[in-house]
Recover the amino acids of this structure.
């Protein structure tokens, strides 16, 4: 293991935008000695190998090179965690650290409760992580070594999380440029239901609504900067976001109810030509947004 490296052999399960960027950043910063990559589609793992994202790719849990892995990063849809872990945990070293990069956390904690029965001690070496970075592109070719530079990264340690393992994971993410914060899983899901999951739902919904109009595709050809900015995230992975919407349904539906109430107020004000209400609602949003500083 090279000087400054935190992990000797890291397995990346998922080598797309997030997983691939984790690998590239860790290699660039010298935080890992050797990176193995796995994808359910072998051609995706081979693409990551060709791009220099990983040092070797494996076909599955039967690969003998997994014996000395000391860290695993999960960058796959959260709904795949249980199946993938059930396959890999029997062949991974019992002391290797595991951390994820998923957008929901309460569901992961519940999943770990179930797996703990079969794999005692799993919760002590699993660190829940959510890097607040991404983009509308996906796949290994979208990966970038600087994706996490200056970006927020939330850790949601469990009560059972091993302190030494947690520190290693903190040092790893700080080492690839992220700014760290800590919160519990439920608070995390409520917060990101509001500032991430709902905006994505609205962007998808807006594009679908316009396309449903007989002239929708024609309308969109004339879209300007506002259209571009508002719809950018609607190009994100449908599989990933369908999972997120289902996994964080309670928080998302709560925020959606508030949004629907606000939209109803705006609609009523437009229908009744109530200029004062329109300006009040729009003014509150404009005042806040004009002074908002992105971290």
């Amino acid at each position: 293991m090279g000087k400054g490296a935190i992990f000797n052999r890291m397995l990346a399960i998922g080598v797309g935008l997030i997983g691939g960027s984790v690998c590239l950043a860790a290699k660039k910063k010298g935080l890992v000695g050797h990176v193995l990559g796995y994808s359910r589609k072998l051609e995706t793992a081979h693409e990551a190998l060709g791009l220099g994202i990983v040092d070797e790719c494996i076909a599955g849990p039967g690969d003998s090179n997994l014996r000395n892995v000391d860290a695993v990063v999960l960058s796959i849809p959260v709904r795949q965690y249980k199946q993938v872990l059930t396959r890999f945990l029997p062949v991974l070293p019992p002391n290797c650290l595991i951390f994820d990069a998923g957008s929901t956390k309460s569901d992961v904690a519940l999943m770990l409760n179930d797996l703990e029965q079969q794999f005692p001690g799993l919760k002590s070496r699993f660190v829940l992580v959510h890097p607040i970075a991404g983009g509308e592109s996906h796949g290994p070719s979208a990966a970038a070594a600087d994706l996490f530079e200056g970006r927020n990264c939330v850790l949601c340690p469990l009560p059972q999380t091993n302190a030494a393992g947690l520190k290693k994971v903190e040092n790893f993410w700080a080492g690839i440029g992220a700014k760290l914060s800590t919160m519990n899983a439920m608070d995390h899901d409520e917060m990101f239901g509001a500032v991430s999951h709902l905006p994505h739902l609205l962007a998808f919904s807006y594009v679908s609504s316009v396309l449903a109009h007989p002239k929708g595709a024609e309308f969109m050809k004339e879209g300007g900067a506002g259209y571009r900015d508002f719809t950018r995230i609607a190009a994100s992975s449908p599989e990933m976001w369908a999972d997120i919407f289902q996994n964080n349904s309670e928080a998302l539906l709560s925020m959606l109810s508030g949004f629907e109430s606000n939209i109803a107020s705006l609609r009523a004000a437009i229908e009744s030509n109530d200029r004062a209400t329109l300006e009040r609602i729009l003014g509150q949003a404009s005042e806040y947004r004009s002074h908002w500083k992105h971290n």
The CA atoms of residues 155 and 263 lie 34 Å apart. The chain has eleven helices and nine strands. The chain has two domains: 7-183, 187-291. The chain has a mean pLDDT of 92.
